[in-house]
Amino acid sequence: MEVDIQSLETFNQLAYEGSQQATAMLAQMTGIQADVEVTKITLMDRDDIGEELAGQSFVGIGFDLEGALVGDTTLVFEEACTGPIVEALPGGAAGDELVESSVEEIGNIMMSGFIDGWADFLGATIEHSPPQYIEATGADVLPDADDPNEQVFVFKSHIEWPGEDLHFYIYMLPAYDRLTELMADSGTGDDAVPVDKLSMFNEMTKEGTATAAANVTQMTGIETDAEVTQISFAPVEDVPKQVDNKAYVGTAVEFSGTPSGYLMILFDEESAMNVAEALMPMEPDGEGFTDMHESAIEEMGNIMTSGFIDGWANVLETSVDHTPPRVVHDMGRAIIDPLAAQVGQHQEHAFIIESHMQTDDLEFGCEIHALPDDAELRQALDDLDVARKDETEPDVERIFE
Amino acid sequence: MKVYDSSTGTASSPEQERVKVGIAEYEVTTSDETLTTSGLGSCLGVALYDDAAGVAGLVHVMLPSADGVEDPNAAKYADTGIETLLLEMERAGADRDRIRAKVAGGSDMLDFSENGSGIGVRNMQQVEATLDDLGVPLVSDDVGGDHGRSLRLDGASGDLMVKSANKGSKTI
């Protein structure tokens, strides 16, 4: 199945406009003015969806979609949102027993706003089921997975209420086959990306992340786990929003070959200290994050970058070179913004490859973000086809034998 | 884009609202709110204000010029972003002859370009050229270097506070 870049852009735009429409409905009913922060399409393991929700309490309003688009959509509100929503309703300050039905009703109207644009674009009707109210912690607010290991597309919007520091999210999980058919049908055939190969690229990235994680363990003795790998597609101006704006320490490189692009390995400050000190043969001189810490992070970043990029190069049977790592210690978004701008000189949207690793027993979190040039990523995926042309379906396990 | 004025009522209004300006977005205030934007690397924050009219605006631009881009998001580019912000401020009551500009950002951190100037430098060149074309004086700036910045524009005074992760903060 071939999906062109234009279709990905169109579908991302539909999800963004749908989220804006849903947010406008909320404003109409409650006077609450919220802003859609970011909307992106992500291809990832079904089981990892909602990982970013971990540990928080949510209220979800779930819907089944049928018709032109098939699948599940859930409006996910931080639990603290429901009070202000209900209070803002005409006649507000309802008793507890009315909270559920009020939130359901609002969800129902927001959902109609969300899918209208899709139905218009597809020229067909999309039905949605009555709302289902769910209170849950973390990803449990989303529907259960039929096949946890299956890779699926998810459309995710993050919506924020300025001044309130409250957030809600829209997760649309369309049936993969139906969605890819729709995307393939709506494209022009130019710049097509073989979507099945994108899944494979994700698998390659997982291997790269596993190698990078093994490097961390080998060098520091820190056992890492919970790796999540995903590939997303979003407008370049939304790329910096992929990271938090807190301070990070890490490395960035430019890589060149097929594909070329930029790769960042980022640690939050506390994790950077822990990793750096695990690498040092002796106690550092001085307080805080010293030059010794910095050079340890540089070394770590270099090795992790090589591990990660070599993983691609091996499977793609090409060579991918990279510049020496540059150490950065700054606000997360300021780190990624120059790289997004460099990619943005040639393209309006970008693929973002992200992996996360962490540990339970020590403060350790590491994020890897890669921004490939999209034309070269397509080329890399095509080459994969040529190199394995005797195989009709990509078979990751065979390639990694 | 929303214009924030004193008549905008939301369900809850904290005493002095802070209005966030995202990447490739702009906002205008006519009621002394504080406009903020964060995580500027090579991006630039361009603040325009007309003290007498009480109109201020902030745009967070990412790239120099929208030339050759089909159907661009105006606020993503320095040239179209500044023009759009200026027009919106005039619509809100600002007088172009009184409008002043302050600029911050445009760092050359993580600039991998081997030939010619990096994006941060080119962003600033475009901002200067566009302001010049529009006849808006640039009264102060804090640009370049190898660190990120976050900004806070006081809509009442036109004071622009520039914070960086490791280099403290200053007001320009």
From TrEMBL, chain A:
Record-annotated Chemotaxis phosphatase CheX-like domain positions: 250-340
InterPro entries reported for this sequence: CheC (IPR007597), CheC-like_sf (IPR028976), CheX-like_dom (IPR028051), CheZ_family_phosphatases (IPR050992)
Keyword rRNA-binding assigned: no
Keywords, alphabetical: Chemotaxis, Hydrolase
Any coiled-coil regions, as ranges: none
GO biological process terms, semicolon-separated: chemotaxis
Annotated CDD domains: CheC_ClassIII (cd17911)
Gene Ontology molecular function: any one: hydrolase activity
Top-level taxon of the source organism: Archaea
One Pfam short name: CheX
Domain CheC-like protein as annotated: residue spans: 99-132
Protein name in UniProt: Chemotaxis protein CheA
Species of provenance: Halorientalis pallida
High-level lineage: Archaea, Methanobacteriati, Methanobacteriota, Stenosarchaea group, Halobacteria
UniProtKB/TrEMBL annotation, chain B:
Top-rank taxon: Archaea
Molecular function (Gene Ontology), one example: protein-glutamine glutaminase activity
Enzyme Commission identifier(s): 3.5.1.44
Stored InterPro entries: CheD-like_sf, Chemorcpt_Glu_NH3ase_CheD, Cytotoxic_necrot_fac-like_cat
Family statement drawn from the similarity comment of this UniProt entry: Belongs to the CheD family.
HAMAP family: CheD
Name of this chain's protein: Probable chemoreceptor glutamine deamidase CheD
Species: Halorientalis pallida
Gene name per UniProt: cheD
